[in-house]
Design a protein that fits this description.
single chain; alpha/beta; Cytidine Deaminase, domain 2; five-stranded mixed sheet; two-stranded antiparallel sheet; 7 strands; globular
Length: 172
């Protein structure tokens, strides 16, 4: 008999990722991630400035604009992207503070779909699965294609509800 009061593993680990995200001081987006092997939690990380460096809440965001040519069939258009270069992404911090041997065959739970740079890093990290909640449309098509190419399971928990204590409005 299954206990209906008990959370499933995806919900459990995503809840932890969201609670980890509450450590972020980024005013634009709080992102948290956890590394799991089997059902064992091996590491957590969140986005923010490097240790010992003023963060965005203290010195403001360091926003840069980039342009990317996107092709949709026969139509091309330039897409403007903005990103903060002060912040180390949660996935990058997770990779910096965990061992490769622990990542081999593991799953990463992350509150937000990884950006292109983080997806590249995760694709080369030894993980076999990435589970995320919130979409990140700026890089989505490229990231999905990369995960398919690498054979990494890439799942969106679209119906997941984050814990109320981890709520944050996202600034695009």
């Amino acid at each position: 008999m299954q206990d209906n009061m008990r959370k499933d593993w995806d919900t459990y680990f995503m809840d932890i990722a969201y609670m980890v995200s509450t450590r972020s001081r980024c005013p634009r987006r709080h992102v948290g991630t956890v590394l799991v092997q089997g059902k064992k939690l091996l590491g957590t990380a969140y986005n923010g400035a490097p240790m010992g460096v003023s963060d965005c809440s203290e010195d403001g965001c360091m926003i840069v604009e980039e342009y990317e040519l996107q092709t949709d069939g026969e139509q091309e258009q330039m897409i403007k992207k903005q990103r903060c270069i002060r912040t180390i992404h949660a996935e990058q911090n997770l990779l910096l503070f965990t061992d490769r041997i622990d990542r081999e065959g593991s799953t990463v739970y992350v509150t937000d779909q990884p950006c292109w740079t983080c997806a590249n890093m995760l694709a080369n990290s030894g993980v076999v699965e990435i589970v995320y909640h919130r979409a990140y449309s700026k890089d989505s098509d490229k990231v999905i294609a990369l995960m398919e190419l690498k054979g990494i399971i890439f799942r969106n928990l679209a119906s997941y509800e984050p814990p109320a204590q981890a709520g944050m409005d996202i600034i695009s």
